[in-house]
Amino acid sequence: MTRAEVPIPGFCSVVVGGQRCSRPRASEPFPRSCCSPAAAAASCAAGSWCASVSLRFRARGSFCSASSWKTVSISDLRPVTYDGSICGNDQNGTKIAVQFRSGFSWTVSFTKEASTYSIGSILFSYNMSDSTTFPDAKEKGIVTVNDSVAIKIPLDDIFRCNSLSVLKENNVLQYFWDVHIQPFVQNGTVSTKEFVCDEDKTPTTLAPIIHTTAPSPTTTPAAKEKPEVGNYSVNNGNGTCLLASMGLQLNITQDKVASVININPNTTDFTGNCHTETALLRLNSSTIRYLDFVFAVKNENRFYLKEVNISMRLVNGSVFSIANNNLSYWDAPLGSSYMCNKEQTVSVSGTFQINTFDLRVQPFSVKEGKYSTAEECSADSDLNFLIPVAVGVALGFLIIVVFISYMIGRRKSRTGYQSV
Ligand SMILES: *[C@@H]1O[C@H](CO)[C@@H](O)[C@H](O)[C@H]1NC(C)=O
Ligand SMILES: *[C@@H]1O[C@H](CO)[C@@H](O)[C@H](O)[C@H]1NC(C)=O
Ligand SMILES: *[C@@H]1O[C@H](CO)[C@@H](O)[C@H](O)[C@H]1NC(C)=O
Ligand SMILES: *[C@@H]1O[C@H](CO)[C@@H](O)[C@H](O)[C@H]1NC(C)=O
Ligand SMILES: *[C@@H]1O[C@H](CO)[C@@H](O)[C@H](O)[C@H]1NC(C)=O
Ligand SMILES: *[C@@H]1O[C@H](CO)[C@@H](O)[C@H](O)[C@H]1NC(C)=O
Ligand SMILES: *[C@@H]1O[C@H](CO)[C@@H](O)[C@H](O)[C@H]1NC(C)=O
Ligand SMILES: *[C@@H]1O[C@H](CO)[C@@H](O)[C@H](O)[C@H]1NC(C)=O
Ligand SMILES: *[C@@H]1O[C@H](CO)[C@@H](O)[C@H](O)[C@H]1NC(C)=O
């Protein structure tokens, strides 16, 4: 298994005993179908295992085109059955068998030793005869890929691997993340001890975001790209009273690991309200319960971002909430808008910061739904400010050079006159 990126919080629900996961979203870097409820029976195995599969097959050529490779992503697992799942005991291992849609099946086998267990094999099979998924497949029939992962884990521990792992075998790419599994639950009690996979152990010498250099040979999620810019507005019944457009990237640090999440404007809702002295922009999505931006007026002539208040669901089901009402960002005169195209960071707390891109906001005095003139952040104007300085320095230098050459020239001509 190889590591490819920090998990995106909030995508899967935590499972003990088996439950559905949230539906895959178009915003994902690649299609993920979610959480096979890994626990065949809560009494013998518990946990969750998020998986997604992408596979290629050779499509038949036609009269005028050659055969070609096509890619299929299995993005919705339902309906799901668990036939063939076995509760492990001293003789036989635990097996989690999942069948979904038509002809797909996925089986993970665990074996038990005296004081350890291991994840033996991960089998994935699909039916190329299924003409809905493989409409013009050249070959027909059932294809099975078998991967083995030889990891030994103490019997009483939950195996945890939040990091994205990629298994590649022939034409099948399997992505796994948020794996929390205890295949041999002892005495009916789910353990609290975790065995953490290497990928989750952040090397202390490396910044956690570095694994964007995905070693996987095929298309894996690229480096955390810039978030898409969303256009947000608030209407107070009299027309638009607040305007904002910005790309937002959340950076949550927990247990020294930073997770960076881009907000996808396509799947984000917004509301808010406007008063004379304060204005609120609230965003929410399936994982973000609310992300509030509260603006205020100071000295009766300027506005600024005063408060950020967030509550969001993380991968493991816990809720992350932070508020800070003593901020001072995005400061501009009333009647104008604030603009910053460069990346800027709003540091809400030691564990939470928001990176903004191509930012423009106007929380007060919006006229006819349009932005007023913008006051630009100093980061944007850095260069503009440097240009005259550079020109000045160059000019000064030129003058000095001219002056020195003039002096040398004069001295030379003087000595010349004297020698004659
Ligand atoms: C958002 O929607 C637009 C238009 O439908 C699309 O071009 C864009 O790729 C979508 N962005 C994401 C992150 O899904
Ligand atoms: C182990 O599996 C075999 C066949 O799969 C079965 O016949 C046997 O009863 C199982 N043993 C136990 C103790 O469940
Ligand atoms: C399970 O129960 C047995 C006997 O009741 C006990 O010896 C053992 O330590 C228990 N194991 C765990 C993991 O609690
Ligand atoms: C709407 O606009 C009118 C006229 O400009 C103003 O008198 C009224 O107070 C406004 N209502 C709200 C809710 O802002
Ligand atoms: C996320 O936050 C951490 C800790 O504050 C910081 O070291 C890291 O550079 C940040 N990452 C991004 C992409 O902003
Ligand atoms: C945002 O919140 C509203 C009201 O609570 C809810 O109806 C809506 O579905 C939420 N939007 C998303 C994208 O979850
Ligand atoms: C979820 O993960 C965070 C950080 O990894 C941790 O602080 C929190 O306790 C976890 N919550 C649960 C319910 O496991
Ligand atoms: C943050 O929002 C929550 C829910 O709306 C609210 O209860 C809480 O008081 C807010 N915190 C601050 C500091 O405003
Ligand atoms: C708010 O921030 C200012 C400076 O950033 C600081 O001096 C002040 O003590 C803070 N107030 C509170 C209540 O945290």
TrEMBL record:
Residue ranges of domain Lysosome-associated membrane glycoprotein 2-like luminal in the record: 227-367
Compartments where located: Cell membrane; Cytoplasmic vesicle, Autophagosome membrane; Endosome membrane; Lysosome membrane
Keyword Cytoplasm annotated: no
Residue stretches spanning the membrane: 385-408
PANTHER family: LYSOSOME-ASSOCIATED MEMBRANE GLYCOPROTEIN (PTHR11506), LYSOSOME-ASSOCIATED MEMBRANE GLYCOPROTEIN 2 (PTHR11506:SF6)
Domain Lysosome-associated membrane glycoprotein 2-like transmembrane, first and last residues per copy: 387-418
UniProt keyword Nucleotidyltransferase, yes or no: no
Protein name: Lysosome-associated membrane glycoprotein 2
One GO term (biological process): protein targeting to lysosome involved in chaperone-mediated autophagy
Disulfide bonds: 161-197, 340-377
Primary location recorded for the protein, binned into one broad class: membrane
Family of the protein in this entry: Belongs to the LAMP family.
